[in-house]
Amino acid sequence: MNKLKVSDIRPFIPAKDFALSKRFYAALGWETRDVGPKLALVTLGDEQHFYIQDYYLKDVAENTMLHITVDDALAWHTHVAAVLNDDSFAEARVQPASRQAYGAAVVFVHDPAGVLLHLCQWDG
To answer: Which of 53, 72, 90, 96 has its CA 20 to 30 A from that of 4?
Structure first.
């Protein structure tokens, strides 16, 4: 089993409005680039990625979650709130950091399609 290593996981998330979702993630400061006619790669930092697909089912979007580890949940809340302040992303929203029972401060962000991002700062 030692030879069956995994080097990357890239989930696919739905987009209700493909162009809007790409602009949303770019506004958060993440690189977005088209890699196909209905597919964009989002890069967070140097090695973290996910895909936005031009595909939408409400039940899928509203039950998709990405857990993203961050260094400073409060700073992320401030940043996301500022991005959302001008109403360019009317369906997106952010909640202040809250302490979770599993030992982290988490900022919940709903993207324009309803995908839930968990921006998680681990304790200690």
So the answer is: 53
pTM of the model: 0.93
Domain count, the chain: 1
Does residue 64 sit within a domain? yes
Distances (CA, A) of 4 to 7, 11, 50: 10, 19, 22
Element (H, E) at 79: helix 73-84
Domain that holds residue 87: 12-122
Find out whether 58 and 109 touch, Cβ atoms under 8 Å. no
DSSP state of 72: -
DSSP state of 115: P
What's 31's domain CATH number? 3.10.180.10
Buried b (16+ CB within 10 A) or exposed e, 48-87: eebebebbeeeeebeebebebebeebeebbebbeebbeee
User: Does residue 1 form part of some domain?
Assistant: no
